[in-house]
Amino acid sequence: MKFLTAYFNKNKGYAVKIELDDGKQVWASTTKAVYSFSKDKFEDGEEVKFTYTVEDGKYNVTRIEKLDKSKPSTCSVCGKELKNDKYDKCYDCFKKDSSKETVSNKTNINRYTKSSGVNESIERQAIMKASADAVATAMQGRVDNVDTLAEQIEVLYERLINKIQS
Q1: 9 and 31 both lie in a single domain
Q2: Is the pTM of this model over 0.70?
Q3: What number of helices (H) and strands (E) belong to the chain?
Q4: 7 with 55, same domain?
Q5: H or E element that contains 85
Q6: What is the pLDDT along the chain (166 residues), one digit of tens a residue?
Q7: SS (H, E, C) 91-144
Q8: For residue 62, what are the domain limits?
Q9: What's the structural domain count of the chain?
């Protein structure tokens, strides 16, 4: 079935000219929505799919849509039919390729590692924070003097540093 043209007349309303499967060309009345859609979306002579009724020899088109003649898409690697046209590889082939990429990405990560000085600084900062959190939690409400609290944090920090470095 083909869409041939869309037509509007103030007196007669909206109409489309279609070609049926047997080659017969007919004018069919339609709604404004079908008229507007067909006028915007289809070229004259384009293959379409439409729903119509016939009453007393008069045709009425109620729905018109593109004819999907595309063949099902297949995996670009193994040729397996895909469920979704959005992808070009099946799940199995995608997983195989992504595992190869992961290995190569791991080797690139080494270029971005921090220097030993930076790593040691981060380690010391983490130990200091852990010490401060531990002392603050343990001594909450018990220490009136801030200097005493700071002294306890430093003592705990020194012990943790010595323990990790030894």
Answers
A1: yes
A2: no
A3: 4, 5
A4: yes
A5: none
A6: 788 888 888 888 888 888 888 888 888 888 888 888 888 888 888 888 888 888 888 888 888 887 765 666 788 888 888 877 777 888 888 888 765 554 445 555 555 567 778 888 888 888 888 888 888 788 777 777 778 878 888 888 888 888 877 7
A7: HHHHHHHHHHHHHHHHHHHHHHCCCHHHHHHHHHHHHHHHHHHHHHHHCCCCCC
A8: 2-66
A9: 3
